[in-house]
Amino acid sequence: QKEVEQDPGPLSVPEGAIVSLNCTYSNSAFQYFMWYRQYSRKGPELLMYTYSSGNKEDGRFTAQVDKSSKYISLFIRDSQPSDSATYLCAPNAGNNRKLIWGLGTSLAVNP
Amino acid sequence: NAGVTQTPKFQVLKTGQSMTLQCAQDMNHNSMYWYRQDPGMGLRLIYYSASEGTTDKGEVPNGYNVSRLNKREFSLRLESAAPSQTSVYFCASSPGTGWNTEAFFGQGTRLTVV
Description:
The complex is a heterodimer. Chain A is mainly beta. Chain A contains no helices and 10 strands.
């Protein structure tokens, strides 16, 4: 079993839709959960992170962690064409220099 | 503020040729990484360096060597390129150990081996 599972999509939505992106993980030691965004032909960049369980909101983005079910979500409200990118989840145990990466979900927001 | 700079951005090699991918960061980060990214495979760690003077193998080190020249620079060498090494290569750096392991990425090197 992979440490992180993420549906690669592609996911196509109309502008203004609410988008839900998800990952599952297997390692109970993960405490720190990051979401990266990668535009086409660019390197990934950190979008947001959460520590342990719960929600974290940043503008139109909300990251949610449910440690009991080992499930990570990223919600995008009022999605924009500029949100079209690949979103990678990256959980981490906090004491590990090697980040663990999901495959990434490709999102297209259509005007 | 350049962040992580990779050179070259594009490269075509013939099978058996060698080359070195260069990476430099100006954020005074301790840790540096080399990844390759292939469709359907995601980001796979080739080598990483937790600090100046140390390097460790990642998931897919075969066919590659690295040098942590100093705190700023981390190079990746392909001694005898193979078509299976056709990929996009990313260098990344992070502040160090502990839970704050945000990685900053370069823009990538697109390598084709023919």
